[in-house]
Design brief:
mainly alpha, two-stranded antiparallel sheet, 10 helices, 2 strands
Length: about 210
Amino acid sequence: MTKQYSRTRTMVEGALMLALASVLSMIPLYSLPHGGTITVVSTLPIILFSLRHGVRWGLAVGFIHSLLQLLFLGGLENLAYCQTLGAQIGCVLLDYLLAYTLLGLAWLIAKPFKKRVLGVGVATVVVSLIRYLCSFLSGYIVWKDYDYAFEWMTNFGWGQAIANMGENALCWLYSAVYNGTFMIPETILTAVVAVVLCATVPMLFQEQK
């Protein structure tokens, strides 16, 4: 009975974290014109859930969150930027399914650290950077078909550097810069909030067994 109750409680908590993450993702602090938003730490509830309940539960809730983001929170609109079926598949896998599911690895990354605050901070940064890496790869797949990527870099005053670069290298650079403009600030913001909460309300981050 106790085990069943614990499982039910975990599922309810997971549903609450999914709802909170979805609401926070709808509160943009800054949005880029071709997809990408700095939100009010919208990934933190998923990271927190993983830290409390482990990798298995964390990955499961992260996967559900990825589907919600894709189907109901603007993901399908972003597929309009994909000019080929391969780009659409890459975008779905990298920008959504992998990027959000792998937030559930937070528990595994935090586990080796004896100091909980340090573990929480490192785990938050690492899973956020994994998400950035996924979007970086997706960005190359999507934007390599667009002349806009080259024009955008030119407008940044990098004309001479662009002239010396091949289109392939330029697309990688474009993806790194474009995704970094919103994901790096969100990573920093999420990590700071996670560390502050862990330091002030440590019980919130206690692992549930």
